[in-house]
Design a protein that fits this description.
heterodimer; A: 534 residues; alpha/beta; FAD/NAD(P)-binding domain; Cholesterol Oxidase, domain 2; 2 domains; seven-stranded antiparallel sheet; 12 helices; B: 172 residues; mainly alpha; 0% strand; binds flavin-adenine dinucleotide; binds iron/sulfur cluster; FAD (chain A); Lycopene beta and epsilon cyclase (chain A)
C-alpha cells in the first residue's frame, strides 16, 4: 500500500502567511478558514497522504488478526516511538494516527458539546479550574463546527446544553438493542437519547450516506464518517499547499516570534518554512513535545513555556464498561457506531464525583468474522461455535472526566530517540481518586441496567482495569494568567506574538464528552483571531 | 445454503478487489503462477474449511480468487503457501493437496499446525497457510452476507449492507 509520492515537491512555500503544523481536524479547519480568506497557507504534516483507493484494503487489515491497530494506518515503530512512565500504561500509538486526516482517520466520530458547567469546574463543582471562556463564547463556533464536520443529531437530549438550530442532518435511528435497553431504562427512570455523530445519515457535503460497513473504527471505506481529509482537501482547493511526510523538528524563534518551522523530508533533507503566523495543531502529545524540543537560551525549558506548564496536566477520559449476555438475540455488529446514550447523570458532578456519560453499544461481543479468523476450528465445529457465541451480547460503556493533575504530564525521554534523533515523548499518565471513584459509580449504574435487562454479566472494565479513551488534553492549557497557562483565550501563546495552538491540549479541564467537536470549535475561533492579526 | 458467484462478488466488494480476470496471470515483475493449481487447492481446502451445509463452494471460491489475483503481492504469498502445502501433502501422502481425500487434506493442515496457528502473511509455513489459505477462505465466507446469514447476521462487518438491518429485530 504505497501511501505517498516519494518524488513530490517538498520544498518550502515562498511568502507564506500562515504555516499550519499538523493535518488533523484542528489543522485542517484552521487552514481551510485562512485559505478561504485568501491567505497563503502551508500545512506541514509528519505522516503521509494516504490514497483513498486503499481504504478497503485497510479495512481488511482492520478485520484480520495479523494486523494490530497501529499497523492499519501504517504506524512506524521508529518514527512513533514513545515512553509511558506513569502509574498506568498509555498505548500512544493506538491512540492516534499520523498522516493527512490525523487521528480522525480511525476515530469513532461521536461529537458532543461540552456542558456549560464544564467551563466552570472550579466555581460550580469546586474542583479543577475554570476556563477563561464560557459555553456562550463557544456556542456559535459549536454550531459552525457541526456544519463543518457534518453532524447527524436530534433535539431529544434533555440534558444537552442549549442550542440554536437543529443539527445539519437527522440523527441515526435507534438500534434494535437500544429498544431492549429502553425498556430496562424506563423501569429505572434513566432517560436515553440519540448520539450526535459526525457521520452522514444522508448525503451531505458531497459525501454519501453511511452504508453500514460496520468498521468505522479504524476505517470507514465509504467516507460517510467525517475525517479531516475533508478539510485538508478543501483548503488545498482554496490554494493551500500540503507537504506530507514533513515532520517539524523544531521551531526557530526570537524572543517574541517564531521565524521558521524546520522540517525533515524523506530524502534526508531539512527545510525551513517561514511564515508570518504559525499554528501548532499536532495533537495533545506532539504539540507540547514540539515546544519542548524547540528550547533555546531564551526559552531554556521549552518554547512558549515561561509558565513552566507546557506538557503538564495531561488528561484523558477514562473508560468504564460492563457487558453480558441475554437469552435472546441482540443483533450486534451490523454497524460500528452508537445510536443511544444517556447524559442524565452528567450535571450531578461535584468535587467527589466527576461528570460522566453512559453509552449503549451496538457492537457488543465478538463479530462472527473476527471469531472465525482467530479460532482453532473450522468446518461444522466452527459454525456451531459462531452460532452459540454470536448474537446475544449486550454492552455498555461510559466516559469519565479526570482532573488536571501536575503529576500527569507529557515530557521528553532523552534516553530514546525517534527516527530523526529527537527525544521521544514520555506520556506520564496518572488518574486520581475522583475519577476512579466515579468509575465505580458508573459500573453500579451499568450493573443495575443490565440486571433489569435480565443479562448475565460477563465482563467489566472498572477502577482496576480502566483505560484511556484516546483523547489527549490539557498539555498547553488556556488561561488569562500567563504564569498559570500557556495560551490565552484567543488561543495565542502568551509568550509568542505569532503562534497559536489549535488542539485539545488547550483544554483546562476535560469534561466527559468526546473532545473533537470542541477542538473543531476552538480551531474555528483560533482562525478568527488569526484573521484579526494578519 | 448454496453459495453463488454473486455471493463471492459481494465478498470481494468488501475487500476492495473486484472485476473479472481470465487465463494465466503473470503479476508484473514476477514469475507467472499456475492459477489452476491455486484454484484447485483453494477449492479443495474449502471442502475442509467450510461447513457442510454450504454447497456451491467451487464457484464461490473461484470467483473470489479471480478478485484476489489482481493483487500481485497477495498472489505471490498465496503461491508460496500453496507450494508448501503441496510439499507437505507429497511428504505425507505422495499426492498434491488437491488430489487427497477430504479427511487427508484436513490431516495435512493439522500436521502443519494450521488449526492452531495465528495468521501471519510473513510468518512460518503454518502461519502463512493460515493467512493465505484457511483465513482467506473464512474471510470470504463470513464477511459476506451469505456467510453472515448462516450465523444470523445479514450485514456482517466488512459488508456495506445498509442502515436497515441494525434496526431490525430478530423476528422481522
Ligand atoms: C480510536 C479512536 C477513537 C476516537 N473516537 C473519537 C470520538 O468518537 N469522538 C471524538 O470527539 N474524538 C475521538 N477520538 C479523538 C480524535 O481522533 C482526536 O480528538 C482528534 O483527531 C484530534 O485532532 P487534532 O487535529 O488535534 O490531532 P490529530 O488528529 O491527532 O492530528 C495531528 C496531526 O499532526 C501531525 N503531527 C504531529 N506532530 C507533528 C510534527 N512535529 N510535524 C508535523 N506534523 C505533526 C500528526 O501526524 C497528525 O496527523 C478518537 C481517537 C481514537 C484514536
Ligand atoms: S458504518 Fe457507516 S460510517 Fe461506519 S464504516 Fe460503515 S459506512 Fe462508514
Amino acid at each position: 500500500m504505497p501511501a505517498t509520492d516519494t518524488d513530490a515537491d517538498r520544498t518550502p512555500v515562498g511568502d507564506a502567511d500562515v504555516c499550519v503544523i499538523g493535518a488533523g481536524p484542528a489543522g485542517g479547519l484552521v487552514a481551510d478558514r485562512l485559505a478561504e480568506a485568501g491567505h497563503e497557507v502551508v500545512i506541514l504534516e509528519a505522516g503521509p497522504r494516504f490514497d483513498s483507493a486503499d481504504r478497503l484494503a485497510r479495512q481488511e487489515r482492520g478485520i484480520r488478526p495479523a494486523y494490530d491497530r497501529p499497523a492499519i494506518w501504517d504506524s512506524d515503530p521508529e518514527r512513533d516511538a514513545y515512553e509511558s512512565s506513569g502509574e498506568r500504561f498509555y498505548p500512544l500509538n493506538h491512540a492516534r494516527a499520523r498522516g493527512v486526516g490525523g487521528s480522525t482517520l480511525h476515530w469513532q466520530g461521536m461529537v458532543m458539546r461540552l456542558h456549560e458547567a464544564d467551563f466552570n469546574s472550579a466555581s460550580i463543582r469546586g474542583v479543577g479550574t475554570d476556563w477563561p471562556i464560557d459555553y456562550e463564547d463557544l456556542r456559535p463556533y459549536y454550531a459552525a463546527a457541526e456544519r463543518e464536520l457534518g453532524v447527524a443529531g436530534a433535539d431529544d437530549n434533555p440534558f444537552a446544553p442549549p442550542r440554536e438550530e437543529p443539527h445539519p442532518m437527522p440523527a441515526f435511528r435507534p438500534s434494535y438493542s437500544d429498544s431492549l435497553f429502553a425498556e430496562a431504562c424506563d423501569g429505572l427512570e434513566i432517560a436515553m437519547h440519540s448520539v450526535p455523530n459526525a457521520r452522514n445519515s444522508e448525503a451531505y457535503d458531497g459525501r454519501n450516506a453511511c452504508v453500514g460497513y460496520g468498521t468505522c473504527q479504524p476505517v470507514c471505506p465509504s467516507g460517510a464518517k467525517y475525517d479531516a481529509t475533508v478539510h485538508v482537501k478543501r483548503a488545498e482547493r482554496k490554494g493551500a499547499t500540503v507537504i506530507d511526510r514533513a515532520p517539524v523538528q523544531r521551531l526557530e524563534h526570537g524572543p517574541d516570534t517564531i521565524e521558521a518551522a524546520v522540517y525533515a523530508t524523506p530524502d534526508g533533507e531539512a527545510h525551513r518554512q517561514e511564515a508570518d503566523a504559525f499554528v501548532i495543531a499536532c495533537g495533545g502529545v506532539e504539540t507540547p513535545r514540539l515546544l519542548l524540543l524547540s528550547e533555546s537560551s531564551h526559552y531554556p525549558d521549552g518554547l512558549a513555556n515561561s509558565s513552566g506548564l507546557v506538557g503538564t496536566f495531561f488528561m484523558d477520559h477514562l473508560f468504564a464498561g460492563t457487558g453480558g449476555v441475554l437469552d435472546e438475540p441482540t443483533r450486534q455488529n451490523h454497524v460500528g457506531f452508537l445510536t443511544s446514550e444517556s447524559h442524565q447523570f452528567y450535571d450531578e458532578a461535584d468535587a467527589e464525583y466527576a461528570p460522566f456519560k453512559l453509552e449503549f453499544f451496538n457492537y457488543a461481543g465478538p463479530s462472527p468474522v473476527g471469531m472465525a479468523l482467530t479460532g482453532d476450528d473450522w468446518g461444522d465445529d466452527l459454525l456451531a461455535r459462531l452460532r452459540s457465541e454470536y448474537g446475544s451480547h449486550v454492552g455498555m460503556g461510559g466516559l469519565v472526566e479526570q482532573l488536571p493533575r501536575e503529576n500527569s504530564y507529557v515530557g521528553l525521554d532523552a534516553s530514546t530517540t525517534d527516527d530523526h534523533g529527537n527525544p521521544v515523548p514520555d506520556v506520564h499518565w496518572n488518574v486520581g481518586e475522583r475519577a476512579l471513584r466515579t468509575i465505580e459509580r458508573v459500573n453500579e449504574i451499568q450493573e443495575r441496567i443490565l440486571d433489569e435487562l435480565g443479562a448475565e454479566i460477563t465482563w467489566q472494565v472498572g477502577r482496576e482495569n480502566t483505560g484511556p479513551a484516546y483523547h489527549h488534553m490539557g498539555t498547553t492549557r488556556m488561561g488569562d494568567d500567563p504564569t498559570e497557562s500557556v495560551v490565552g483565550p484567543d488561543l495565542r501563546t502568551h509568550d509568542l506574538e505569532n503562534c497559536w495552538i489549535a488542539s485539545s491540549s488547550v483544554f483546562p479541564t476535560g469534561g466527559a464528552m468526546n473532545p473533537t467537536l470542541t477542538i473543531a470549535a476552538l480551531a474555528l475561533k483560533a482562525a478568527d483571531h488569526i484573521l484579526e492579526r494578519l | 445454503m448454496k453459495l453463488t458467484r454473486r455471493d463471492a462478488v459481494a465478498a470481494l466488494a468488501a475487500l476492495g478487489v473486484g472485476g473479472t480476470l481470465s487465463g494465466c496471470v503473470a503479476p508484473p515483475g514476477s514469475e507467472p503462477v499456475d492459477v489452476d493449481r491455486l484454484r484447485e487447492t483453494l477449492v479443495a481446502a474449502a471442502d475442509v474449511i467450510y461447513p457442510s451445509e454450504v454447497s456451491g463452494t467451487a464457484t464461490f471460491v473461484e470467483t473470489f480468487l479471480e478478485g484476489r489475483l489482481e493483487d500481485p503481492t497477495h498472489v505471490a504469498g498465496l503461491d508460496e503457501a500453496v507450494t508448501e502445502l503441496d510439499d507437505n501433502a507429497m511428504f505425507w501422502h505422495d499426492e498434491r493437496f488437491a488430489a487427497l481425500s477430504v479427511t487427508d487434506r484436513e490431516q495435512v493442515l493439522r500436521n502443519i499446525d494450521v488449526d492452531t496457528a495465528d495468521e501471519d502473511p510473513t510468518g512460518t509455513t503454518s502461519e502463512r497457510v493460515r493467512y493465505y489459505v484457511v483465513n482467506d477462505l473464512l474471510l470470504a465466507l463470513y464477511a459476506s452476507p451469505a456467510g453472515g446469514e448462516l450465523v444470523g447476521i445479514e450485514n456482517p462487518q466488512g459488508h456495506p449492507g445498509g442502515l436497515a438491518s441494525y434496526q431490525r429485530g430478530p423476528s422481522a
